[in-house]
Specification:
Layout (H helix, E strand, L loop, with lengths): L14 H12 L14 E4 L5 E3 L4 E3 L5 E2 L4 H5 L2 E4 L3 E4 L12 E4 L1 H7 L1 H22 L21
Antiparallel strand pairs: 1-2, 1-5, 2-3, 3-4, 6-7
Protein name: HNH endonuclease
Organism: Kozakia baliensis
Length: about 160
């Protein structure tokens, strides 16, 4: 995942090398939570089950082998390309020890950061409400206020 510009100063100068080491030397190109392979296009069904392209079996969200999905789930299957990222387990980009870093695919990284994303969403929503209240913009709560109604003449 790309680093947000406002957080870039928190990362060390050798971050690309650290990330590379975690993702490809230690994890050998596989997600350390679910086992998805980096750079491969995989088939995914709702609930997180995915078809392992190398072993040709279905795996669950934790990487364990499971039974194939039923036909209804296969109808909703989609293809996705796996990209690994180095994630900070404590969510602090200043802590770059190997035990604090984990190679995660997009899905596992989003799940790991879920509480942060929920808090960020709430802050964004509250900021929009505050701006709407301040400037009487589109985020104002309640019914729209009408300041002037132009009379319409019928049949003239």
């Amino acid at each position: 995942m790309p680093i947000r510009p406002e957080l870039k100063a928190l990362y060390p100068l050798n971050w690309p090398q650290l990330s590379q080491r975690v993702r490809f030397e230690r994890a050998k190109g596989y997600c350390e939570r679910c086992g998805r392979p980096h750079g491969k296009t995989i088939t995914v069904v709702p609930g997180g089950r995915w078809l392992d392209p190398e072993r040709h079996n279905w795996r669950n969200a934790r990487g364990r082998e499971v039974d194939p999905p039923d036909l209804l789930d296969l109808i909703l299957a989609r293809q996705t390309r796996v990209i690994l990222a180095a994630a900070h387990l404590d969510h602090d980009p200043r802590h770059n020890r190997q035990r604090n870093l984990r190679a995660l695919c997009q899905r596992c990284h989003l799940i790991h950061d879920r509480t942060y994303h929920i808090a960020q969403r709430r802050l964004t929503f509250r900021a929009r409400l505050a701006l709407g209240d301040l400037f009487e913009g589109p985020y104002r709560m309640g019914p729209p206020q009408v300041s002037f109604i132009k009379p319409v003449r019928i049949g003239a």
